[in-house]
# Entry
Amino acid sequence: MKKYFNAIIILIAFHSNSIISQDVEEIVVVTSALVDTTEITNPLYVIDGDDILDDATTSLGDAIDSYLGVSIADYGAAVGQPIIRGMSGPRVKILKNGMVNRDVSGLGVDHLNDVDLNDISQIEIVKGPSSLLYANGTIGGIINVVDDTISTVNFEAPEADFSLETQSVNDGEAQSFSYKENIGGFNFSLGFKDVNFGNYDIPDGAVMHEEEEHHDEDEHEDEHHEEDLGYVNNSDFAVEATKFGISKVGDWGYIGFGIDNLESVYGIPFHGDEHGDEHGDEHGDEHGDEHGDEHGDEEEGHDEHGEERIFSTTDSETFSIKGSYNVNGSLINKIDFTYRDSDYTLTEAHEEEEHHDEEEHHDEEEHHDEDEEEHEEHAPTIFANQATEYGAIFDISNDYATQKIVLNFVDEDNSIVGEEAFMNPANNEEFTMGYYLSKDFDMFNVDLGMRIDQIDRSGSVTDEDHGDVDNYSIDDTTNSFAFSLGRDLSDTLDVNLGFASVERLPSVIELFMNGPHMATGRFEVGDPTLSAETSNNFDITFSFDNGDYYGYASFFVTDVDNYITLMDEDEDHDEHEDEHHDDEDEHHEDEDGHEDGHDDHGHGNLIHANYVQEDAEFDGYEIEFGRTIKMANGDLTLSFGRDVVNAEFSDGHNVPRINPARNVYSLIYDQGDVLFKINLKDVDDQNDFGEGETATNGYQMLDARLTKTFELDGKSKLKVSLFGRNLLDEKARNHASFVKDQVPLPGKNVGIKFNLTF
# Structure
């Protein structure tokens, strides 16, 4: 708590000083550490916070999935990692109030983004060239979640907000509360959210099982029974999120601090088996004989770990200081500054491990050693990220152009401890210098961004067979450049050309990964010798708006040199590797007693996959056109959109996990106090799949929402929202998901949400 008291002291001391007086600059939108939203050229989406808050509670990725050029790679209801124009993972950065969110979502596809969507102002999506202004390596773009926990303007009056929600697909419920008030010249902000969702329903027969997984007739029947249940096991989700902020605003600028805490528990609906058939047979034969009926009931419930409760718990605490000082000097107009300290942990565990000591074999001292071995096998795995970040932005704008200089430093530690610790601890240090220029000419608007990032990533790799540890330190500099040129062709039509060259160093998982990753069903191996990716992006966007009709068309081409991807090994390679290690396996057979597991390096049923590099090209487009019709009591807006992404490696084979083309049909009727929205997302088949993938059938996702606002008095209002998702109850699979066959998308979901503001 020492750092919190220090923040209060800084706040009071700063306010007590004599500061240069100026008019308050009311910054309504908080975005990049470099630029404000109004200064960023298209393409850019700004999603109103009310649109998120009035709809069903979802993951971040699912909340923005209907926007053109944006999709997700889901892993059940809790996890939805955004994809922009086919780019995913570390190429897309998630930001909170303009600062990169530092959790462990980059260390596993089954890890959620630590972002609270309660009481937010807006979500901003930046695609293409402009995205590099926010963070390094943003080849795809950024997603910025904005709230006013640290308010940059004074609250005019106290405001409280209560929300209640229920959903049918998961028998879920959610509650939230927020309060804002200016007390004694200080802005206080408080938010709380509690969400409890059970396993979500799916259409009958949506889960697919591979035949080779059926070891006997009884197991086959059990798995089909599971399929007929109509829900995804271990797809539950619960979260508690709190945030608190204080700020002081004056003619001199503002300063404040905020504390965010998020705790969650969610099931892991798919978990690979490192032991495979060997585990099943051994467990069934050996343990069955030794313990007899003792294990019978337990094994029947777990179905060889298929019914086992595997879940993750997360705990994050973030402390931020943010402010702005109006210098009003001859060179520097304003200095914006930030500080953030974050501590994030994710613990993945088996439920039987929690009750091991209480319920399993507590009276059997003769089997103590065996119990210890089982406990060790199911010990939890703890993922942790601790990061400290400092930043400052110097506004040196003048009458001729907007200009800003940014300095930023990050120190980040990642660690994984436990049975499934597939990577040794790693450290990441980044130092950034950036420059931004925006200038209006008579015929053109020019935006220019440059950044230099000095990055030092250090870690180690443990040899799988011999236990030797090799230490690595990757110290390199990346240079990125973006340029856009906009012109108004007429009063209703404009065009924007953009070019960006972005360098991205490999992430720590791409460098130092070396172990079984159950969430993907693979034994993944990184490569410390990977080179930096270099992306050259070109896009052109046309926008049209005459009041009644609107439309835009954006076309892009992105060439990525040394594109990094996780590639499954082919069978020929596996056979060669097995032959290579035959002698070594025989040599260690008696010594280690692992002849069965070591025969395949202990990978069992896991697919061996390596992080490799190959040049790749992404191209595609987004088009949308619509019409707004003025009606007697409101406005009716109809629109159609389509987005397409194609991605191939230089040798002609497809980049894996690229979502197919989509058509999006939308109808919105806005009557002031009544809002009705219906959205149909028509997703094509995906037959252009990469190695290790299968084709994915298309589907139609129909969503709708009706919101009615009741004015209770001059200051209070009640919003009632009826919503429906997947109203057609489609069997839908996300092609970008590693577990699309085992974890389909939720079935039909209807719900109601009450929001009281006073």
User: Anything to note?
Assistant: The chain has a mean pLDDT of 81.
